[in-house]
Write a structure and sequence with these properties.
- Helix 4 packs antiparallel against helix 5 and helix 6 packs antiparallel against helix 7.
- The protein has 3 domains: about 120 residues, Gyrase A, domain 2, CATH 3.30.1360.120; about 140 residues, Four Helix Bundle (Hemerythrin (Met), subunit A) (Up-down Bundle), CATH 1.20.120.430; about 160 residues, P-loop containing nucleotide triphosphate hydrolases (Rossmann fold, 3-Layer(aba) Sandwich).
- A 7-stranded mixed sheet has the order 3-4-5-6-2-1-7. A 6-stranded mixed sheet has the order 9-10-8-11-12-13, with helices on both faces.
- It contains 14 helices and 13 strands.
- Strand 11, helix 10 and strand 12 form a beta-alpha-beta unit.
- It is α/β, with parallel strands linked by helices.
- Bound molecules: guanosine-5'-triphosphate and magnesium ion.
């Protein structure tokens, strides 16, 4: 990742899939100069003497066959741009060869190709957005449904970051007062009474806990892909769960409806040679679907929880017992298309009781037959879908969870110190720890590592 913002960068900013409109984005001190030899404005205007943001129609003069390409420039000459640097967006046809040619022409003029996420990184380094907002930019790009989009937009608007900043500001004031009284110990000056310090700490803790809930609402906070075993009652879901997790906790029994709640466990999967990375997933065992629905209140709740888990899964493993005919629910479930579903034919060690369903992976929890194939299928599916949808604002939860916990621990220690009339030096040290944790969340305190983690997920042009 390149942390210097003193050169001029350019990239295609519109979707790779094409579209009616294509965008090439340029940012940096020489943004205007890059376009001077290429752009002919349709109206008399001097790019170098603009004082406010402006839309300018015109043509780009290209070398080679394309010759002239009509376009519109959106120009930000001043620090009010996204990156707080002179910036230009060239809006033109969405055709890839046109965009490539424009990009090359711009790169020939003293600009370099932007790295993934570099525009947003510059916005962050310039103080235009905080880290939670940078993650929200990614969330907006990758939102898979209205709910995700809404959440990302709220986070982008600064809602989440602002609350962290407010808590941080109050703790900073508190720390300043504690440090001031350390400086003036001889003069017996008290800047804050212990009761007031306690009140501040309590408020900070409560606000942080509430915020913590919002942040991790999206999931378990671990940001792992969720793979859910589901299917009719008694098809062998829990047996498979136990086998895949090397866990013996899920109860397996002959009766239907054994699993009444959902269980979840983190599993390390085989390493696909190609990517060289270990895959960690969260595997979830659910209550079986039963024709009788929830016969009682607990059953009802179990069915509800099962549907919720199935809904939010990244991959659904529909388990179908091979030793008996399909039931009407299974037949109708199979009729619905679902790209995030794999079919698992369970109890493959028993004599088959039905014809094979296309695409099903035969497995046996008793003999382990087919388990390796199932593992590979899971990893392949997740690798493919991760390419399409890399993790979005859930990443904020994953990144912040640890800092949030550390901050809460420091606040709690600080409170104990005040209650026990402990030393003010120690109190100041705890407050500094708490502030450090909060600073990491919003990016006021950051390391290259943190930035790499956030920005390496972006694609080029954002
Ligand atoms: N022969 C054979 N029996 C299996 C296999 N997998 C599970 N069973 C048996 O099928 C029955 C149900 O297994 P479970 O794993 O509890 O099934 P489940 O789908 O979790 O059931 P519910 O939680 O009730 O929905 C048990 O008696 C298991 O021993 C298998 O691969 N082969
Ligand atoms: Mg079960």
């Amino acid at each position: 990742m390149n942390y210097h913002a003193d050169d001029t960068i350019a990239a295609i900013a519109s979707s790779m899939q094409g579209g009616a409109r294509g965008i090439v984005r340029i940012s940096g001190p020489l943004a205007m100069e890059c376009l001077l030899p290429l752009f002919h404005a349709a109206e008399p205007v001097s790019l170098q003497h603009l004082t406010a943001a402006r839309r300018i129609p015109g043509d780009l003069e290209m070398p080679g066959e394309l010759s002239r390409v009509p376009c519109e420039l959106f120009v930000w000459p001043d620090p009010r741009s996204y990156t707080r640097q002179p910036s230009i967006e060239i809006h033109t046809y969405g055709a890839r060869p046109v965009l490539d040619a424009i990009l090359h022409a711009v790169l020939d003029q003293n600009a370099r190709l932007a790295e993934p996420g570099e525009f947003t990184l510059r916005a962050f380094l310039a103080g235009r957005i905080d880290l939670t907002q940078a993650e929200a930019v990614l969330g907006v790009i990758e939102a898979r449904d209205q709910a995700e989009l809404k959440q990302a937009l709220t986070q982008l608007a600064g809602g989440l970051g602002r609350k962290f900043h407010q808590i941080r500001d109050r703790l900073l004031n508190l720390l300043a007062d504690v440090e001031a009284s350390l400086d003036f110990t001889d003069e017996d000056l008290v800047f804050r009474q212990p009761e007031e310090v306690l009140r501040e700490l309590d408020t900070a803790e409560q606000d942080l806990r509430t915020l913590g809930k919002t942040v991790v609402e999206r999931g378990t906070g671990d940001d792992l892909p969720r793979v859910v075993l589901f299917g009719s009652a008694n098809v062998g879901k829990s047996s498979l769960f136990n086998l895949l997790t090397n866990w013996r906790h899920a109860i397996v029994a002959d009766e239907s409806g054994t699993t009444r709640d959902w269980l979840s466990e983190v599993v390390d999967f085989a390493i696909p040679a190609a990517s060289g990375k270990a895959w960690k997933i969260r595997l979830i065992d659910t209550a079986g679907w039963s024709a009788m629905g929830g016969i009682d209140e607990i059953g009802e709740a179990a069915q509800g929880a099962m549907l919720r888990e199935v809904e939010r899964a990244d991959l659904r493993l529909l388990c179908l017992d091979r030793s008996r005919p399909l039931n009407p629910w299974e037949i109708s479930t199979l009729e619905s298309t679902d790209e995030a579903r794999n079919l698992v034919g369970t109890k493959a060690d028993l004599p088959p009781g039905r014809a094979e369903v296309a695409g099903e992976i035969p497995v046996s929890a008793d003999t382990s037959e087919g388990i390796q194939r199932l593992r590979s299928a899971i990893v392949e599916h997740l690798a493919r879908s991760r390419e399409r949808n890399p993790p979005s604002v859930a990443s904020t939860a994953a990144r912040c969870g640890e800092s949030l916990q550390a901050t809460l621990r420091s606040i709690s220690t600080a409170r104990t110190l005040v209650q026990s009339r402990g030393s003010e030096e120690l109190l100041a040290a705890e407050l500094r720890q708490a502030l450090d944790g909060l600073g990491r969340i919003v990016g006021a305190v950051y390391t290259d590592d943190i930035l790499d983690r956030v920005f390496s997920r972006f694609c080029i042009g954002k």
